[in-house]
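Posting for a labmate who doesn't have an account.
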Amino acid sequence: MYGFCVPAQGKSGGLAVLWVKSVNVQLQSYSQNHIDLSVQLENSQDCWRFTGIYGEPECEKQGGPRRPSWQMQKFRNSLLSCGLSDLGFQGSPFTWTNRHPHPHTVHERLDRACVSQGWSQLFPDASVTHLHVNCSDHKALLVRLEDTPIFSSHRSRPWRFEAAWLHSDQCEQIVAKSWGRCLGPSTLEGVAAHIAACRADLSLWSKTVLKADKGNKNDLKLNFKD
């Protein structure tokens, strides 16, 4: 897993984008209120743009005073002018809460994924799922480009760092390279992205290089016995 994040200012704000290794992402620009990326999938010629914006969108709300409809007219007009439509969602209907006890609790759908018609034609089965995040009052938006299950039906073996890897000089080189390649400041989210990148590269190294070395050693043992 790779990622880029803009750190929060105190207890408010902050943006984060995560993506899998098979996606080629180039950072175009960012600020406290946006992240702009160009995205290209592996083995694909199509390149598209992802722009995450931290602002006040039109929202569905539960609890608290109602927002005047005229406040968000400019936002709705901007979506219409850009030809963007809401992808909808799966999961909880709200993406933010003020975390106040009842009866002062407020829930709102502040976060959404809006796409162009051209993007929808590229990914007709795309979907959005609201995911709970313990460290934030916002939910994360998981955008899937294909209609595939979020979680596998069988439990995979948990990943573990092997102590034997420390005996190889390549291990330190891989960690240093992975840590330096991953985008993102040294925040909690950035550190998590760096660790995920190291884990992916170490797993690949273990399955390819170390497995091949082990096979060569077994061949030498057989030749020695012969």
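Reply:
Got it, the structure tokens are right above this. Confidence is low (pLDDT under 50) at residues 215-224.
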